[in-house]
Amino acid sequence: MTKKTIMIVDDSASLRQVVSIALKGAGYDVIEGDNGKTALAKLTGQRVHLIVSDVNMPEMDGITFVKAVKQLPAYKFTPVVMLTTESADDKKREGQLAGAKAWMTKPFRPEQLLGVVQKLVLP
Fold this sequence. Notes:
123 residues, alpha/beta
């Protein structure tokens, strides 16, 4: 079975590290981006099975990033999980409308994240 690839987009290096360790420990390959703009530049047509993105980031926020990802034919159907400190319903709705499939609030437990990832990751 080939490894599935998950992209993590967050401006916090320590959070990317925690998520990356959890995902790699579960057998996933990980691509990291420190904001929406750098993450978008890394989406060059390779298969990405899931994206985990923060909402509040410099240069390009998570909602704008998700909208941009959904415009790319290769990633139109890639599920996106928002992992953020934001818990307001209007933000969640905005994320959903942009194309996010799930919303998790920080702080989170790695096993919680893995549960969501396993449900949503593309076959």
